[in-house]
Specification:
By secondary structure, the protein is mainly α. The chain contains nine helices and four strands, in the order H-H-H-H-H-E-E-H-E-E-H-H-H. Helix 2 runs antiparallel to helix 5.
């Protein structure tokens, strides 16, 4: 009972911090995801260093990922209008590659692989969320679209809730037993249907909000909203499975203990790490951002 209460309180606090950080102000949004990027990369590199023959540079990898997020944010809001802002990030990669020549590690290729994988798997997707949140208006002014990043997480949470409830009641056929025995096709379908209903509701509210109160962005039609919900469901599920595969490789249950009852940062953002780039690709393809 005590563990259930702890899990519920931590979960509620997590949602409050996420929703509040996204909605409140654009600078709190940038700061929130800078912290998330740093904490997740620090956790990941710590896990990678537990693998025999792997020794990543935790500090530089973490700083590089946070810098990438801040650089993309600055570029997205027009503070940086050239590629030069990304040069320090590129120099960091060169350093991480060249430094292995002098460190005399047991297996430098492993170090390179796990270091660069962390940037590709964590830093890049979390930096791309800035493309959902910010746009430049025709007047060349930055505009903050809090609804898109918030809806992405609402869809992920709705899908998780629907999948858990439906899977607990009706789950019979395993979705991916080799990696995640607890997931079922019934649960996945239930989560998807609930998410599509949530996407319909958000799309409807987005279109009926009076123009003078609509401060986030131009309204999108309901069908693209439902398409976004479906994209988040599919790729979010794959994101969960990718992290499960990573944890199975390390023979661990949770990626960390920073969130009592919920595991680590990777456990909380695994779905988002795949869903964010998929959502960006989907919305850019439809020319909605």
């Amino acid at each position: 009972m005590k563990n259930l209460i702890t899990r519920a309180l931590v979960g509620l606090l997590f949602v409050i911090v996420m929703v509040g950080g996204i909605i409140w102000r654009p600078d709190t949004f940038i700061l929130l995801f800078a912290v998330i990027t740093g904490m997740t990369l620090w956790e990941y590199t710590g896990l990678a260093n537990q693998i025999e023959g792997v020794q990543t540079n935790r500090f530089i990898s973490t700083v590089a990922g946070v810098y990438l997020h801040l650089a993309v944010a600055a570029w997205s809001i027009g503070l940086a209008d050239s590629f030069v802002i990304f040069v320090p990030y590129l120099i960091t990669h060169l350093y991480l590659l060249i430094s292995e020549l002098y460190l005399k590690q047991e297996n430098p290729v492993n170090d390179w692989a796990y270091t660069l994988f962390g940037q590709l798997y964590i830093a890049l997707p979390l930096s791309l969320i800035n493309l959902l949140a910010f746009r430049i208006t025709p007047d060349q002014e930055p505009a903050y679209n809090w609804l898109l990043p918030l809806s992405l997480f609402l869809f992920l949470w709705t899908n998780d809730t629907g999948a858990y409830l439906t899977g607990s009641l009706l789950g019979r056929h395993k979705l991916f037993p080799r990696i995640s025995p607890g997931k079922s096709w019934e649960g996945s379908i239930g989560g998807a249907l609930l998410t599509l209903a949530a996407a319909y509701l958000i799309g409807w509210l987005d279109n009926v909000t009076p123009a003078d109160l609509d401060t986030h962005a131009p309204a999108y039609p309901i069908l693209p909203w439902m398409g976004l919900g479906l994209v988040v469901v599919v790729f979010g599920t794959w994101g969960d499975l990718v992290e499960s595969l990573f944890k199975r490789t390390l023979h661990i249950k949770d990626s960390g203990r920073i969130l009592p009852g919920h595991g680590g940062m990777l456990d909380r953002f695994d779905s988002a790490l795949i869903a964010i780039p998929a959502a960006v690709a989907y919305l850019y393809t439809l020319s909605l951002i």
